[in-house]
Write a structure and sequence with these properties.
The structure is a single chain. This protein has 520 residues and is of the alpha/beta class. The chain has helices at 6-19, 24-33, 38-49, 66-73, 100-130, 141-156, 168-178, 192-202, 205-214, 225-234, 264-357, 393-401, 429-432, 436-439, 456-519, and strands spanning 87-90, 181-187, 215-221, 241-248, 251-259, 370-376, 382-388, 410-414, 419-420, 445-451. The strands form two sheets. A five-stranded mixed sheet has the order 1-5-4-2-3, with helices on both faces. Strands 7-6-10-8-9 form a five-stranded mixed sheet, covered by helices on one side. A hairpin with a 4-residue loop joins strand 8 and strand 9. The chain starts with 5 loop residues before the first helix and ends with a helix.
C-alpha cells in the first residue's frame, strides 16, 4: 500500500465504508479497475450485490476516439426510477359537460380513432425498423445541452433557473457529490404546452429563485439525441416533463414527477411539497458523509502521525547504528594501534636481543686500549661499559640502544665540550664509522642519553620505557635493601652470641676469683 497517494487512500477508505469489503487489497484492485472512479465502482458493486446487471463499464481514462468520449459522457447512471414513495403529479385536464350528442360523437369516432392510431403505430414501427430514429444516436451531448440553453434564452430571456451546462451523467454525479436535489426538465419547443410552461413557470421569479436555492436544474430538448435518451430512461409520456431526483439510502432515487403544463402557483406548491418531504433524507445522507469524512480524516491523521513516529524511530535507530558502527570502528582502530605497538615492541626486543648476541666481549679495564665510559639514562639510571679505543661510535650507540630503559628515539650528548654523537638517522654512514678516540671521548667520561619526542607515539613509548626502567630500578633497590637488612640481622645475632660468650667467660672468671679468694 506504499504506492497509494493520500487522495487515493481517502477514496479507498470511503469505498470500503460504503461497500463493506474487509480486504483493503481487494478494494484497491476494484478501484484500480475503474481507474479510481469511486462513483462507478460503488454503483457497480451495489448492482452486483443486488443481482442486477452492471451498467457501469470500466473507465479507460484516455479517449482514443471521439466515439469513446461520447460513450463516456453518456454513460448511464443507475437511478431508482420507480420508488414506491415518489409523488407523481399530472396536469389537470379541463372537464367539459358531456351531453347525449357528445357521447354519440365519441362512440361513433372511437373505432376510427383506434384503427388510425394502430395503423400509424404499425407503420412507424416498421419504418423505424429499417430507418432508425436519428435521435437514438448521441454524438454531441454537450452541444445538445448548450443548444437548448441558447435557444431558451433567445426565446424567453435570461431570467430563468440556473441551467447546468453539462451532460446528464455529470449532472447526476454532481448532485450526489453535493447532496442536492436534481430537477430534470425535458421540453419541446414545438409543443404549445411547453411554451406555456416556459412562459408562466420557469421565468417566474418565485419559481426560479426557489429552484436555485434548493436544487440543481438540468434541462434539454427531446428533439436532440441527449434529451431523447433521457426521456427514454425516465419513460416520459408527454412534455413538459420534470422529475425530481434525490438521495435515499445512499442511492439516487426519483422522488417526484410533474408532467404537463400548469400554472406557476400549482407547480411551485407541488415542487415545494416534493422537496420538503425528502429534505430529511438529504440531510441524513450529508450527515453520514460528514461522519465518514471525519473518520477518514482521523484515520489519515493517525496514519500520518504513525508514519512520522515510525520515521523518527527509524532515524533514531539509524543514528544509533551509525554511532555504534563509529564506536566499533574507533575501538577497532585503537585495538589495531595497540597490536601494532605490541608488534613493534616485540620487533624492537627481538632486534635488541639480536644486537646483544652479536655484541663483542667487554675488554678488561686494565687493558692499554680500554676506555671505560658511563651513560646516564633518561630514567636516571647509570650504566658503565668498557670499550676499546678503536671501537666505532655505531657500537657505542648500539650498546645504549640494547638497554631496557633506552627510549625508542634518543641522542647521546657529550658534556664538555657539549657535543652530540652522530645519529644514524640524521648523519652519514662515514660519521658513524668514526672511532671513540677520534671523536675525543675521554676515559671514565659521563655521556648523557636524551630522548627525542618526534611524535606522540615516540613520546608514549619513551614514557612507557622510562616507567618500566624506574619500576625495575625500584625493584632492584628494594631487593638490595632487603639483602642489607638480612645481613644486618645476621651480624647482630653474631654480636649477641659473642657478647653472651664473653659474659659467660667473665662470670666464670669471677667465680674462679671468688673461689680463690675464699681458699685464701
Amino acid at each position: 500500500m506504499d504506492d497509494v497517494t493520500p487522495e487515493q487512500t481517502e477514496m479507498l477508505l470511503q469505498f470500503q465504508d460504503l461497500t463493506g469489503i474487509d480486504s483493503l487489497n481487494r478494494c484497491k484492485e476494484l478501484l484500480e479497475s475503474y481507474n479510481w472512479n469511486l462513483e462507478m465502482a460503488v454503483q457497480d458493486q451495489f448492482n452486483q450485490n443486488e443481482g442486477r446487471e452492471q451498467v457501469m463499464q470500466q473507465h479507460t481514462g484516455q479517449f482514443q476516439t471521439p466515439q469513446d468520449q461520447v460513450r463516456e459522457l453518456t454513460r448511464p447512471v443507475t437511478v431508482n426510477i420507480f420508488h414506491p414513495q415518489q409523488r407523481i403529479f399530472y396536469a389537470s385536464a379541463v372537464r367539459r359537460p358531456m351531453d347525449w350528442i357528445t357521447w354519440f360523437k365519441w362512440l361513433f369516432a372511437f373505432p376510427f380513432r383506434f384503427t388510425f392510431s394502430t395503423a400509424v403505430d404499425v407503420v412507424v414501427f416498421f419504418y423505424r425498423f429499417f430507418v432508425p430514429d436519428p435521435r437514438s444516436r448521441v454524438t454531441d451531448p454537450y452541444g445538445d445541452v448548450r443548444s437548448f440553453i441558447d435557444k431558451f434564452e433567445q426565446s424567453y430571456g435570461y431570467m430563468h433557473p440556473h441551467f447546468e451546462r453539462m451532460t446528464y451523467s455529470q449532472a447526476m454525479q454532481k448532485a450526489k457529490e453535493e447532496f442536492k436535489f436534481l430537477i430534470i426538465y425535458l421540453s419541446n419547443f414545438s409543443c404549445e404546452d411547453c411554451k406555456l410552461f416556459n412562459t408562466t413557470c420557469l421565468v417566474n421569479p418565485d419559481v426560479y429563485e426557489f429552484i436555485n436555492n434548493n436544487a440543481l436544474f438540468w434541462a434539454c430538448s427531446v428533439e436532440t439525441p441527449e434529451g431523447y435518451r433521457v426521456s427514454k430512461i425516465f419513460r416520459s409520456r408527454y412534455e413538459p416533463f420534470l422529475v425530481v431526483i434525490g438521495l435515499r439510502d445512499n442511492r439516487l432515487t426519483v422522488v417526484g414527477r410533474v408532467e404537463g403544463a400548469q400554472n406557476a402557483d400549482t407547480f411551485l406548491q407541488r415542487l415545494r411539497r416534493i422537496i420538503n418531504d425528502n429534505q430529511s433524507y438529504i440531510r441524513a445522507a450529508k450527515h453520514e458523509a460528514d461522519d465518514r469524512k471525519l473518520s477518514r480524516r482521523l484515520i489519515v491523521e493517525q496514519n500520518d502521525a504513525y508514519l512520522e513516529s515510525l520515521k523518527r524511530d527509524q532515524e533514531k535507530m539509524k543514528q544509533k547504528r551509525e554511532e555504534e558502527m563509529k564506536k566499533q570502528q574507533e575501538e577497532d582502530a585503537i585495538r589495531r594501534q595497540k597490536e601494532l605497538k605490541k608488534q613493534k615492541k616485540r620487533e624492537m626486543k627481538e632486534l635488541k636481543r639480536t644486537i646483544r648476541e652479536s655484541f663483542p666481549e667487554e675488554p678488561a679495564a686494565g687493558d692499554s686500549d680500554a676506555l671505560p665510559l658511563a651513560f646516564k639514562m633518561p630514567s636516571g639510571e647509570r650504566i658503565n661499559r668498557v670499550f676499546k679505543r678503536d671501537d666505532s661510535l655505531f657500537l657505542v650507540r648500539n650498546f645504549v640502544f640494547c638497554q631496557p630503559c633506552c627510549p625508542p628515539s634518543f641522542d647521546i650528548m657529550k658534556s664538555f665540550p657539549r657535543k652530540c654523537l652522530p645519529n644514524p638517522y640524521s648523519s652519514d654512514a662515514k660519521e658513524m664509522d668514526v672511532t671513540i678516540a677520534e671523536f675525543g671521548l675521554l676515559k671514565n667520561e659521563m655521556l648523557f642519553v636524551q630522548q627525542n619526542f618526534d611524535n606522540s607515539d615516540d613520546e608514549s613509548d619513551a614514557s612507557e620505557s622510562i616507567a618500566e626502567s624506574l619500576e625495575k630500578s625500584e625493584a632492584e633497590k628494594f631487593d638490595h635493601m632487603e639483602d642489607e637488612v638480612m645481613s644486618t640481622e645476621i651480624i647482630d645475632s653474631d654480636d649477641s652470641e659473642s657478647d653472651s660468650e664473653d659474659d659467660d667467660l667473665i662470670g666464670d672468671e669471677l667465680d674462679e676469683g671468688f673461689v680463690v679468694t675464699n681458699e685464701e
